[in-house]
Amino acid sequence: MGFLDVDGTRRPAPEPARVDVRVPVAVGTLLWMLAATVAGFAYGPLDADGLGWWLTAAIVGVVLGFVGLAVLLLRSER
């Protein structure tokens, strides 16, 4: 069918869905925390294999997750 009706006119765009994105951002941040914890306990073997950056990447994921949550919370207060 497409975006055009039978007579060739364009249908109006649907309203955007209202979604609370705080939950998936919080879950993602918790998963990065778990990854950082595991990488922290296994840092010796990871570093020996040249994978010490995994801990850094997980910590950056946690920090960015908190930044994202802060932005979402500040934005929802407006």
TrEMBL record:
UniProt organism field: Agromyces seonyuensis
Alphabetical UniProt keywords: Membrane, Transmembrane, Transmembrane helix
Record flagged with keyword Membrane: yes
Transmembrane segments: 21-45, 51-74
Name of the protein in its database record: DUF2530 domain-containing protein
InterPro entries registered for this protein in UniProt: DUF2530 (IPR019681)
Top-level taxon: Bacteria
